[in-house]
């Protein structure tokens, strides 16, 4: 694949994510954002300091995740201040960081369930950063070297 074809594929993926209503959230290693009116830099392992302000209540119901073939993701729900917010993780991230094998639906779901606490922790960070909008987690949202399996 040429560099131009690779760029075209990336652009098509971003357009599909936007069309599906996903919020584009850059990986936390590079994230500079404003949270509740204050600028923050969220690097590896750091969270925005919002201790002196009201925080969002974020919970993850125990419901089963669902595979979404249209964008190769596993979708799960969050409740942000009692309102449902869709979250998803790409199968690429499940393969890169949670030991799933390519083209294996059952493996993707097993990897999600095994890595669920870590996936939900990263989703929680990005829900806070994005002020409770839907989050699509990709491979770059997880630090390298922490692969399971």
Secondary-structure blueprint of this entry?
Elements: H1 3-19, E1 31-35, E2 38-42, E3 58-59, E4 66-68, E5 73-80, E6 83-90, H2 91-98, H3 105-129, E7 135-137
Parallel strand pairs: 6-7
Antiparallel strand pairs: 1-2, 3-5, 4-5, 5-6
Pfam families: DUF1488
Protein name: DUF1488 domain-containing protein
InterPro entries: DUF1488, Shew3726-like_sf
Structure in words:
- The protein has one domain (3-49, 56-141): Double Stranded RNA Binding Domain, CATH 3.30.160.140.
- The chain is 34% helix and 23% strand.
- It has three helices and seven strands, in the order H-E-E-E-E-E-E-H-H-E.
- The radius of gyration is 16 Å and the shape is globular.
- It starts with a helix and ends in a 12-residue tail after the last strand.
Condensed summary:
This protein is α+β, with helices and mostly antiparallel strands and 149 residues long.
| Number of DSSP E strands | 7
Q: Which CATH first-tier class would you pick?
A: Alpha Beta
CATH topology: Double Stranded RNA Binding Domain
Order of helices and strands: HEEEEEEHHE
Pfam family, one: DUF1488
Protein name: DUF1488 domain-containing protein
InterPro entries: DUF1488, Shew3726-like_sf
Organism: Paraburkholderia rhynchosiae
